[in-house]
Amino acid sequence: MSAAYDVLSDKKKRRTYDLFGERSQRVESAAAGGPDPFAGFGDFSSFHQRSVWRPAPAAGPEPGLDVEAKVKISLPDAIRGAQPTVAVRASRECKACRGTGARGGVATTCPDCHGEGVRRARGPVPFSRACPRCNGTGRAIGEVCSACQGQGVRDEEQQLRVTIPAGVTSGSRVRLKGQGAAGKRGGAAGDLYLVVEVAADELFRRENDDLHTQVRIPFQQAIVGGKVEVPTLDGAVAMVIPAGTQGGQRFRMRGKGAPRLDGSGRGDLFVEVQLDIPRHVDDQARQLLDDFVARTSA
């Protein structure tokens, strides 16, 4: 009760109580040299200095985004290299305004920020922000380009002739610098990344830098041996098989596979032999086969 009377009777204490409520005694204590109720909050003068905002930079060149596209090629093209045409959709510089966003391609200095791209506010805590009139570009557009709605870029589909290096595989990524989305305000274009998909091939199966294929031969040729024609990337070549070749047996042709990406040569071609066995034989052929079996099993 006496504490309440002291507060009500003292105008200074009454004003302190109105501001801080029941904590007014701690404030009074701090003023009289007692403990500081704001001791855990640090130096407010340094806080004021740190709270001053630095001027925001004007919006400069903005680089374009990278773009990813898929390209499907044949196995021979993946092995030899190719130059397919790919449809790529990305933002491109607006041709109507030459990337300025202004009709006719004419943009003037912003009268509000005088080309700086920022507006500054003075006061106890000065700060700056991007100029709302020019969006921080420093340039004013009198009449907006109708083709790009003032953006300076347009979303377009473009047919690009691209180069695929020899030796790529499915999942390979080919980077084409500067073929991505257009930049803004003079910024550099992004890059185009082509993700390669290699189509299945009727003749060859690929494993890393090696190729696998099959040839079919008559069973009698497998017995006596001889030359067979084998498909390769460079055209058909003759391969000699020994007498007694078994069905499913594989032969290796060195250097007839896919070229290595590091340029250190080519892989190998593995040829698997499959036997053609006649489904129907006449009586004479059956007799000959019986004689053959009798001779070879003796």
Describe the structure using short key phrases.
298 residues; alpha+beta; four-stranded mixed sheet; three-stranded mixed sheet; 7 helices; 28% strand; rod-shaped
Describe, in plain words, how this protein is organized in 3D:
The protein contains 7 helices and 15 strands. It has helices at residues 2-9, 11-20, 24-31, 44-50, 75-80, 219-224, 283-297; strands at residues 67-73, 85-93, 108-109, 118-121, 127-130, 139-140, 153-161, 173-176, 192-198, 205-207, 210-218, 226-230, 237-241, 250-253, 269-276.
Protein topology:
Elements: H1 2-9, H2 11-20, H3 24-31, H4 44-50, E1 67-73, H5 75-80, E2 85-93, E3 108-109, E4 118-121, E5 127-130, E6 139-140, E7 153-161, E8 173-176, E9 192-198, E10 205-207, E11 210-218, H6 219-224, E12 226-230, E13 237-241, E14 250-253, E15 269-276, H7 283-297
Helix pairs in contact: 1-2, 2-3
Give a short summary of the structure.
This protein is α+β, with helices and mostly antiparallel strands and 298 residues long.
Q: Report the uncertain regions.
A: 40-58
Shape: rod-shaped
User: What is the SS-derived class?
Assistant: alpha+beta
* Radius of gyration, taken over Cα atoms and rounded to an integer in Å: 41 Å
Approximate helicity band: 10-25%
Number of DSSP helices? 7
